[in-house]
Amino acid sequence: MSRIVQKYGGSSVASAEKIKHVAGRIAARRRAGDDVVAVVSAMGDTTDDLIELAQQITSHPVAREMDVLLSTGEIVSSTLLSMALNEEGLDAISLTGAQAGIHTDEVYGRARIAEIETGRMERELAAGRVVIVAGFQGISENFDVTTLGRGGSDTTAVALAAALHADACEIYTDVPGIFTADPRVVPQARPLKDIGYEEMLELATTGARVMHARAVEVGAIYGVDILVASTFDASAPGTLIHKETTMEQGNKVRGIAHQDRIAKVTVRGVPDQPGIAARIFEPLAAANVSVDTIVQNASVENLTDLTFTVAPGDLEGALDVVNKMLPVIGGSSVVSAPDLGTVSVVGTGMASAPGYAARMFKTLFDNKINIEMISTSDIRITCVVDADKVGDAVRALHAAFELDRG
Length: 406
Ligand code: ASP
Ligand code: MG
Hints:
There is one protein chain. The protein is of the alpha/beta class. It has eleven helices and 18 strands. The chain has two domains: 3-174, Acetylglutamate kinase-like (Carbamate kinase), CATH 3.40.1160; 256-400, 2-Layer Sandwich (VC0802-like). The longest helix is centred in the N-terminal third of the chain and has 25 residues, at 63-87. The protein is globular and about 75 Å long.
């Protein structure tokens, strides 16, 4: 008998019909003898709808109230799934994040899990119940409800798998695994059999939307193997995210991620002195603007340009901060470009073999795609390009690195 933590995403529980289907899958697993803890997301677009509703009331919702509001989406789906399981003749119980013992810090909207008290879940499992946990939420030291950030139910699931010492952690979604690229952009994209934590983390942070990056991080820290598979196609094997990746001789790029839209901010004519970058990026961090790629040019006559990218929703906030700092740091002007995107090539094999960057740049050049910015890690190369060119770039690179061949 094994202990399994499963997670079902929003599209998997989007209707009563789908919730019954999920209940059927869990029931089969339970009847086969496994102990099951199932984490659920909110039904379909519920979270977006709740955000939209709050915006009709105020453009500055109180963070504490916002988190309580958003947490209700997952509570709805968890109770319905528990009812569906009871209807199947199984003993099941739903728990909110707080009832499941998920303690977090008090950073509303993107709280981090501090500790999980598993007592209640252990008691329910010992009583033979299927435990359904509302994803994406926890409780602070002051007993206030917190949420973990968009897509956070994945993180709930992986953290529970670690805390409960589960034998398996399975993330069920509407696609049959992690693909070599987004199949909506590249028809030839194929699901990967497995992928390493590091590679998955790079893909998730550069645009692959299947997995919450923090879930992969937690998985890597606690050594939780994570299977990403389809809720609806039980015949597809899915993708295993784990420590070791199988050798793929001769092809060291494992996947391509992209972001359709990002914005770029350039601060011009900045004096090349110690402390300037800190004076720009500290207030950006304080204003909760999360900055991606940063490039500082080599200085000419002691003046330099500093460029960084942000999510489009953060552009206004970033410009506010930077325009305020401009007189303080003595820069000459601020310019921004909203219509950019990124394409990233990822693979651990790239760390030890030269030539990947050259091949990427040549492929983009052959396709007449201009590179605006470049950033790299050991196992990733990211190019910022025109938003219009992102699709062409992903397709060209998928072909150039022979990802369709397996
Ligand atoms: N319902 C939340 C969201 O849509 C959390 C999740 O789905 O994982 O972001
Ligand atoms: Mg969701």
